[in-house]
Amino acid sequence: MLALEAAKSAGALQAGSVAEVGERCEKVITMLPSTPHVEETVLGPGGLLASRPSDSPFLLIDCSTICPKASRALHEAVSHQRARGWGMLDAPVSGGVGGALAGTLTFMVGCASEVHLEEARPLLLSMGSKVVHCGGPGTGQVAKLCNNLSLAISMIGTAEAFNLGEKLGIDPKVLAGVVNSSTGRCWASDTYNPCPRVAMEGAPAARGFTGGFTNALMEKDLALAMQPGGSRIGKPPPTRVGRARHILSTQDERKE
Question: Please, what sign has the CA dihedral across residues 114, 119, 122, 125?
Fold first, then answer.
């Protein structure tokens, strides 16, 4: 509700339902927690596609991080109206809360049409500083999952390293100086360090771990990365990624 009030105070109009958004808006940006939320919003009864007048233009920009296979199915559903100029971009983001506030997000875009990409570019650059066209439908999601897989591994490794260092008696600031001038350096260590004693301004560890990208969302992204072919069916083999996902789940359980 705080986000809604902030948007209204900045001049946004509040809709009473998803259907009202579909009826009134030619361009819609969605950013929702998971695949089922996006599917229901776009495809469900009273969703965007059902509500949009068929003789009106429509561009969907989905900035959620979801299953690539599901994203491609959404592209296909929207493309059925291609003769009327309807189009879709999957455009997940990177940059965190700090990037959103500063307007420096990176958008990873998958789409079938250069025309729709250029139509969306001004909107994306009003919220971010970089738009990367990754390829066809679903490739934005693929890029985001690969990025977050790498991020999760490096963040967990950095957290474990600094925890070990403190337990073995080294000053975290000294350790940070070593890591950030050595081969262990990464975004998790030099920009978003999870150790409160060395955390940089804007990092969650510098504000008591309030707000920001939650463990639950990263666990969701790792689960998507583990699914064969980006599908939501099938049992993935045991991997170190599974261990990383387990660590995140355990941390959330401890907080509860």
Answer: negative
Query: Distance (Å, rounded) from C-alpha 83 to C-alpha 101?
Result: 37
Residues 25-53, mean pLDDT to the nearest whole number: 95
CA distances in angstroms from 10 to 28, 77, 123, 211, 216, listed in the order given? 18, 33, 16, 21, 30
Catalytic-residue membership of 220 = no
Contact 247, 216 (CB under 8 A): no
Separation in Å, CA 224 to CA 121, 139, 242: 27, 14, 11
Containing 99, the helix (H) or strand (E) segment is: helix 96-102
| Active-site option among 8, 27, 130, 144 | 144
Instruction: Give the per-residue pLDDT at 233.
Output: 41
Q: What is the pLDDT of residues 212-242, one digit of tens each?
A: 777 888 888 888 888 755 444 445 444 555 5
Which pLDDT does position 83 carry in this prediction? 59
